[in-house]
From TrEMBL:
Signal peptide: 1-20
Taxonomy, superkingdom: Bacteria
UniProt name for this protein: Tetratricopeptide repeat protein
Keywords noted in UniProt: Signal
Amino acid sequence: MKTIFLTLTVLISSFVSVFAHTTDLEAPNDEKSAKLIKMVEEAGNNDWKTLKHAAVLTINWGGDLEMAKAWIDKAITIESNALTLEVLGDYYIKTGNVEKATETYFNALEKGVTNLGKEDMERIQRKVLVYARMK
């Protein structure tokens, strides 16, 4: 039941985010954020990498976290893999939800155990070690 609820939530949020375009009033004044929005709008329908990259930059820059969450949710809907889940974990850290972040990083490790490179795997493992202690 929990899985069905989570799946429906992700599908609904991604459906809404697909059809939600920013207007001039909603566009940020920040030039970097505006470039990210343009980059996402020009991305292909199955381009999860661009969505993930835009979410990473937004989270790291301290930008609009709601926008970053919408982008990463859409990326996960397109391709749920270790890298997209890692960014979702980063989002949870930024919003103060350490427990959810740790759980998401564990899921990322499980998905990436056979196909991640050494550098990516070590980075996610470090995040698990650091944030699992904070729970």
